[in-house]
Design brief:
This protein is α/β, with parallel strands linked by helices. It contains eleven helices and seven strands. It has helices at residues 2-17, 30-33, 38-41, 56-59, 80-93, 110-117, 131-143, 157-162, 186-190, 220-230, 244-248, and strands spanning 100-103, 123-127, 150-153, 172-176, 234-238, 257-264, 267-275. Strand 6 and strand 7 form a beta hairpin. Helix 1 (2-17) packs across helix 7 and helix 5 (80-93) packs across helix 6.
Length: 281
């Protein structure tokens, strides 16, 4: 028993060591603090001059209170205004009998915290398979005062939904913001071979219409095969350029699929596809 407890403590200690709260630009890895110049923007219109680090208060408004992030999490966390509006829509449009929200890819907690803050759900279940990312999410939920409203699971959502949480699925709305794609490097970009932002950007941003079957590690078919088999009500948070035909192809003729663009400062950041019995005013 003591060996098992020590092993768990070692994993948690390692996870916490990889969670960072940067307070000065010089602490930040180059990929996160990069600021692109106009000549580099010629290679891809989607290149931004605003670094991830300089957007930290848009990601978490309470960043200065000690928000923790892994370095990779900067690229995938939902900005707080988008997370709040998404949570509002999910809360108001979901079937009244659904009392539980399951966040399948919790990350460092952006969406999970917003769902808990909405006050709509009897319980929020947050699933994240990376232990260090999960430790960040738990810590961040404490800062926002909602940690006691959330049940945390370090697990693969595919396995957990079919086993331990199988009995809850019929009473739940499932929300999934899966990983969207891979990365490239500066040399690739300058040689015109990249599909993304330099040094660490996701590949989906360069596509005019993003092929959802190319998402990694979970394609759109992986996700839809799971969720359609388990529940009638789920939401997918996807790239703004997603191929909507790939989503519509999985909707029955007598069913409705609602897709909403979520924007910040006049620019679309992502879409949510609402499968099931969501009622929008």
């Amino acid at each position: 028993m003591s060996d098992t407890r020590d092993a768990r403590n070692d994993v948690q200690s390692t996870a916490i060591e990889e969670c960072h709260h940067y307070t000065r630009l010089v602490q930040v890895p180059w990929d996160i603090r990069k600021s692109f110049t106009p000549d580099l923007q010629l290679y891809s219109p989607s290149l931004t001059r605003i670094s991830y680090y300089h957007q930290r208060f848009s990601i978490f408004s309470r960043y200065n209170e000690g928000i923790l992030m892994t370095d990779d999490a900067w690229y995938g966390v939902t900005p707080e205004p988008v997370a709040k509006k998404t949570a509002e829509h999910v809360a108001n449009a979901s079937p009244a009998e659904k009392a539980i929200l399951i966040d399948c890819f919790a990350g460092v907690g952006g969406n999970t915290i917003a769902f808990a803050l909405s006050g709509r759900w009897k319980r929020v279940y947050a699933i994240e398979r990376d232990p260090k990312v999960l430790e960040c999410a738990k810590h961040n939920a404490e800062i926002y005062g909602v940690h006691n409203q959330i049940s945390w699971y370090q697990a693969d959502c595919f396995e957990l939904l079919r086993k331990e949480l199988a009995g809850l699925v019929n009473h739940s709305v499932i929300f999934a913001s899966p990983p969207w794609g891979g990365k490239c490097n500066l040399r690739d970009l300058l040689e015109g071979e990249a599909f993304a932002l330099i040094a660490a950007g996701p590949v989906y941003r360069s596509d005019q219409v993003f092929d959802l079957s190319s998402m990694h590690p979970y394609s759109i078919n992986d996700l839809l095969n799971l969720f359609l088999d388990l529940t009638s009500d789920f939401v997918l948070y996807l790239p703004r350029t997603s191929n909507l035909r790939q989503l519509a192809a999985r909707v029955q003729e007598d069913e409705k699929l609602t897709v909403i663009h979520y924007c910040m400062e006049g620019a679309s950041k992502a879409i949510c596809a609402y499968f099931g019995n969501f009622q929008f005013a």
